[in-house]
Amino acid sequence: MNKCFKPTRTVLIAVGSFNPPTNMHLRIFELAKDFLQKNDHEVLGGIISPVHDQYGKKGLVSAEHRCSMLKLAVETSNWVNISEWETQQEGWTRTAESLKFHKKALNDTNSEFDWAKKIQAKMLDKEFPLNINLKLLCGADLIESFAVPGLWKDEDIEDIVSNYGLVVISRSGSNPQQFIYESDLLTRLQRNISIVPEWITNEISSTKIRRALSRGESVRYLTSDSVSGVSEFDGIVLAVSRCQVGDVIESLVSSVSPLLRLYFSPCLTPATSDIKIERLELYRLNEINPNSCGSFIIYKWLEENICSLSVDKLTKRFLLDQSQTTSFSVSKELQECAQLNYHQ
Ligand SMILES: Nc1ncnc2c1ncn2[C@@H]1O[C@H](COP(=O)(O)OP(=O)(O)OP(=O)(O)O)[C@@H](O)[C@H]1O
Ligand SMILES: NC(=O)c1ccc[n+]([C@@H]2O[C@H](COP(=O)(O)O)[C@@H](O)[C@H]2O)c1
Q: From which residue to which does the signal peptide run (predicted)?
């Protein structure tokens, strides 16, 4: 083996709306990293650069919110970072400009940006200059958007491909090889374009997640649980009418904390048995799932199961407090006891 051989130090950057982030947004980083590492690159890190609000795409939620979702999404990755730089500019930034900024910051040993510091910290030997290369990582649909009249400047395309390089992940409905073949410019620069096939095809997209959410359908396992705001409710909801709370139950429930206690006024014709125990999924409210917050789900459930609801003050405070943890532990004994009472 040639002792002098040094792999090219590379960082991948993906630009886009991330509205909301999906599992595929992170998956493309893994695919590209595997591919590059087999082709003489040392992949030091990844950067996700969400677009500015003024990009103006229909249905784009605020950059602040997209960034918080992205931060949650990358919690499980030890190499993909978020750069909020584009979102903090006066207006929308062309991708070529964004690449220029990010490459400069990555190679600046005094960089003030956390993502740059983290990536630089991954370098085993820090000889100067740092010589960190930046490549644009994208799905095949993004490269095909190069052909949309007026969307990209030819000189930007030339700059991006020749001075940085592209890693394109295949996507169903796109044919990047043919697209390159049909473009004289891209054919000329094609040694700087890597096309990475995704054999385990997966057509998750932000559009499909938004569609599912707007229809009140589950988006679980399409994006991280922390992004969708869903977390298992591992406790019990005890819904009892005030007059039905017997001393025994009262002493039992008060000894267990936390427990969601919902009191409701008795209905004329009781819609439920004395004690109702349900397992529910709780959602945290965000701009993407405005109809799925914990309180909404619980009110909805109660509406369907119980009439004339009045939630006691403590419970209401709990339900409305979005920062509250949504995971409960309730002792097995209590659950069994409650089950027993339910069947009585
Ligand atoms: N399923 C996928 N396969 C390959 N690349 C993807 C996939 N989903 C997203 N990407 C790529 O991730 C980058 C950022 O994506 P973007 O924010 O546009 O997401 P999207 O899911 O395509 O969004 P939308 O559905 O809103 O158009 C783009 O380069 C896009 O091509
Ligand atoms: N001329 C350009 O630099 C140019 C044109 C169109 C889109 N883009 C970028 O490509 C990304 C496209 O994102 P969407 O696929 O979510 O629309 C955005 O980050 C946008 O800034 C850049």
A: none
Q: Is the CB of 151 under 6 A from ligand 2?
A: yes
Q: Is 152 in the pocket of ligand 2 (CB under 6 A)?
A: yes
- Contact status, residue 168 vs residue 176, Cβ threshold 8 Å: yes
First to last CA, the chain: 77
**C-alpha of residue 16 to centroid of ligand 2, in Å:** 6
**Cβ 286 vs Cβ 65: under 8 Å:** yes
- Render pLDDT for 13-39 as a digit per residue (tens, 0 to 9): 999 999 989 999 999 999 999 999 999
Selection from 248, 263, 270, 271 nearest residue 338 by Cα: 248
What's the CA gap between 12 and 137, in Å, rounded?
6
Residue of the nearest CA to atom 29 in ligand 1? 138
Name the residue at shortest CA distance from atom 20 of ligand 2. Answer: 16
pLDDT digits (tens, 9 = 90+) for 244-286: 334 444 444 444 433 444 443 333 333 333 434 333 333 333 4
Task: Give all domains of the chain, ordered by start, each with its CATH number.
Answer: 8-203 (3.40.50.620)
Judged by its nearest atom, the ligand closest to the C-alpha of residue 204 is 1
Measured in angstroms, how far is the CA atom of residue 40 from the centroid of ligand 2? 29
For ligand 1, residues with CB inside 6 Å are 14, 16-19, 22, 24-25, 28, 138-139, 141-142, 169, 171, 202-207
What distance in angstroms lies between residue 20's CA and the mean position of ligand 2's atoms?
15
The Cα 21–Cα 73 span in angstroms is 7
